[in-house]
Design brief:
about 150 residues, alpha/beta, TIM Barrel, five-stranded parallel sheet, globular
């Protein structure tokens, strides 16, 4: 199994240096800055974009899930998997947990429309593969997406 590395930087230059150091590894990129996420998706070679859902403020008529149709198209073109942060779901308080789950459900619809792969990423808490698959089905993941978890 290939080694994975999590890159969490605040600027594009630091991110590029960190990614260039870790060639031949599975690179997971995570940031709370949506503009930086788009720039990294377009220009750098990463494997997984991990979207953080906590600390986001929703729009008036739509959830702010960190993913839109433009980012989904770029991710599809560059063969990038969208990551779901499982640790956020587990550690959130009940009200925040419901908001996070609804944002993830919105991302699942968008990924299904663009035929993008999604994956649960957990750093602190490990879970059984069957638990993750059943959570994916509850969140309305299509079966082709659940098979690849």
């Amino acid at each position: 199994m290939q080694e994975t590395i999590l890159v969490q930087e605040t600027t594009f230059e630091k991110t590029r240096k960190a990614i260039n150091k870790s060639k031949e590894k599975i690179i997971i990129f995570s940031s709370n800055n949506d503009e930086l996420n788009r720039k990294v998706l377009e220009k750098l070679k990463i494997n997984i974009l991990l979207l953080n859902q906590s600390k986001r403020k929703d729009f008036q008529k739509q959830r702010n899930s960190g993913l839109n149709h433009v980012l989904a198209t770029i991710a599809k073109k560059n063969n990038i998997v969208i990551g779901i942060n499982l640790d956020e779901i587990i550690e959130a308080k009940p009200k925040e947990k419901s908001e996070i789950i609804s944002r993830i459900a919105q991302n699942i619809k968008l990924c299904n429309k663009n035929k993008l792969k999604m994956k649960f990423i957990s750093i602190k808490h490990s879970r059984n593969i069957y638990d993750l698959k059943s959570l994916g089905l509850i969140l309305k993941m299509p079966t082709w997406m659940v098979k690849e978890i």
